[in-house]
């Protein structure tokens, strides 16, 4: 092995010994770690872009972002938006090259043993979060699991392999994973945010794609980390046996792919190597369920290539009847809006009932964030949009505890432009 490669491996091993290696974080499923941010010259509004699973039927949004960014270093060069998955092979090579190039050019400036306190201002308000590492040993996406960190929606196993393949070829990870903690007294983030004037500010900038404004502060102080540990342990100790401390509010399939990759690597490692291996951890941002700025929005359905009548025929088992005042769903498109009550689905989650009949009818569909986006797609591309109902966020933890999961694509944490932007990164090689 070349001396340079050996030195890099040793540096990474030392960094990982810091990540979750401290006993005070054991049993919590999360910890601080080495976080990568671009140096000051590149840390501007061109760097962050929104989660890759947004605007899947609106590739023009991503094309406009690319034009605005130009040749500047950007996370856009490190991801493949799902709108362009048909070009995955070509774009994948470009992503891998960009990751290597950014590392070789020292675009990134590492921050060791740190969290990042985040404030994101959007039309929903100021949302506070904490960027951290997830210990994948404490996470499970199976509905019957009893881990501290759990998925919120049904994991489609067929969606894991392409994400796993990308992670296998990547040298760094970016993340749009959002963890949710049920902290009604705001005991974790509240005191930290109140004390943020004592922390080192890392960034303060507007976000493109109408994403609002974001600020971030480095959290390396031993006292602050000790207080966080105490607050997390207090929340954990209040849990009933088998109940989760964190739920995955966004990025379920990305985290499932990270778990699959870790299980592959773990099988090849000696026990002493497993504790600090980089594949054991994944980057995420944690937010509080009770934040007024954390608003659950429904994820709507866009059905392509069939008539409205065909959609109505698919919905027949649910007993659809016109109902202007209290509809469960609304069909939109070129024709007049059609509000519908689903009389045969009153004892079920509406999202689950609708998704089941669409799947059984093999309807070609996309999942769309935002009412306006749905109407624009229906108007420009044809087809029938289905406006889905709200899911009350206070039901999230009770429903997952009771049923193990929600139906896939039940809710979105804000509109498309409020989703997490890729900003922080982490070495996984």
Rounded mean pLDDT score: 90
Rg of Cα set: 22 Å
Shape: globular
If helices are DSSP runs of H or I spanning 4 or more residues, what is the number of helices? Answer: 12
Question: What structural class is derived from the secondary structure elements?
Answer: alpha+beta
Beta-strand content estimate? 25-35%
Topology:
Elements: H1 3-18, E1 30-31, E2 33-38, E3 49-50, H2 59-69, H3 88-104, E4 108-122, E5 125-135, E6 139-140, E7 149-151, H4 160-169, E8 172-174, E9 178-181, H5 189-194, E10 200-207, E11 212-219, H6 222-237, E12 246-250, H7 252-266, H8 271-274, E13 281-288, E14 296-303, H9 308-315, E15 320-322, E16 329-332, E17 338-342, H10 350-360, E18 365-369, H11 371-381, E19 384-387, H12 396-403, E20 411-413, E21 421-422, E22 425-427
Parallel strand pairs: 6-7, 7-12, 9-13
Antiparallel strand pairs: 1-5, 2-4, 3-21, 4-5, 4-11, 5-13, 8-22, 9-12, 10-11, 14-18, 14-19, 14-20, 15-17, 16-17, 16-19
Helix pairs in contact: 4-7
């Amino acid at each position: 092995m070349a001396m340079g490669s050996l030195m890099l491996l040793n540096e990474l091993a030392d960094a990982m010994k810091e990540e979750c290696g401290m006993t005070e974080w054991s049993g919590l499923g999360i910890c601080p770690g080495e976080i990568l941010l671009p140096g000051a010259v590149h840390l501007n509004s061109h760097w962050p872009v929104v989660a890759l699973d947004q605007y899947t039927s609106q590739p023009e949004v991503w094309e406009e972002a690319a034009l605005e960014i130009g040749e500047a270093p950007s996370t856009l060069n490190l991801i493949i938006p799902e709108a362009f998955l048909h070009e995955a092979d070509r774009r994948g090579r470009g992503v891998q090259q960009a990751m290597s190039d950014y590392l070789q050019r020292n675009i990134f400036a590492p921050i060791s043993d740190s969290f990042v306190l985040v404030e994101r201002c959007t039309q929903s308000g100021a949302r506070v979060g904490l960027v951290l590492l997830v210990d994948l040993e404490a996470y499970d996406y199976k509905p019957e699991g009893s881990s501290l960190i759990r998925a919120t929606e049904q994991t489609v196993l067929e969606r894991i392999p392409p994400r796993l393949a990308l992670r296998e070829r990547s040298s760094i990870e970016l993340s749009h994973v959002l963890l949710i903690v049920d902290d009604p007294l705001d005991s974790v983030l509240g005191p930290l945010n109140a004390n943020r004037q004592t922390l080192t500010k890392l960034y303060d900038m507007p976000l493109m794609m109408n994403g609002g404004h974001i600020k971030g502060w480095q959290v390396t102080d031993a006292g602050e980390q000790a207080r966080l540990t105490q607050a997390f342990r207090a929340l954990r100790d209040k849990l009933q046996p088998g109940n989760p401390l964190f739920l995955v509010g966004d990025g379920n399939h990305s985290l499932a792919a990270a778990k699959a990759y870790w299980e592959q690597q773990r099988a090849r490692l000696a026990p002493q190597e497993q504790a600090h291996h980089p594949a054991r951890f994944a980057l995420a941002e944690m937010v509080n369920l009770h934040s007024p700025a954390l608003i659950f929005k429904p994820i709507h359905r866009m059905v392509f290539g069939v008539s409205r009548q065909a959609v109505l025929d698919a919905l027949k088992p649910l007993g659809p009847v016109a109902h202007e005042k209290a509809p469960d769903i609304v069909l939109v498109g070129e024709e007049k809006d059609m509000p519908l009550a689903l009389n045969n689905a009153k004892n079920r989650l509406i999202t689950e009932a609708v998704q089941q009949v669409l799947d059984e009818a093999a309807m070609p569909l996309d999942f769309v964030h935002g009412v306006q986006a749905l109407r624009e797609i229906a108007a420009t591309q044809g087809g029938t949009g289905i406006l889905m109902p709200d899911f009350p966020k206070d039901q999230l933890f009770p429903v997952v505890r009771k049923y193990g999961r929600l139906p896939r694509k039940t809710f979105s944490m804000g509109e498309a432009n409020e989703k997490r932007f890729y900003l922080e990164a982490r070495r996984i090689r």
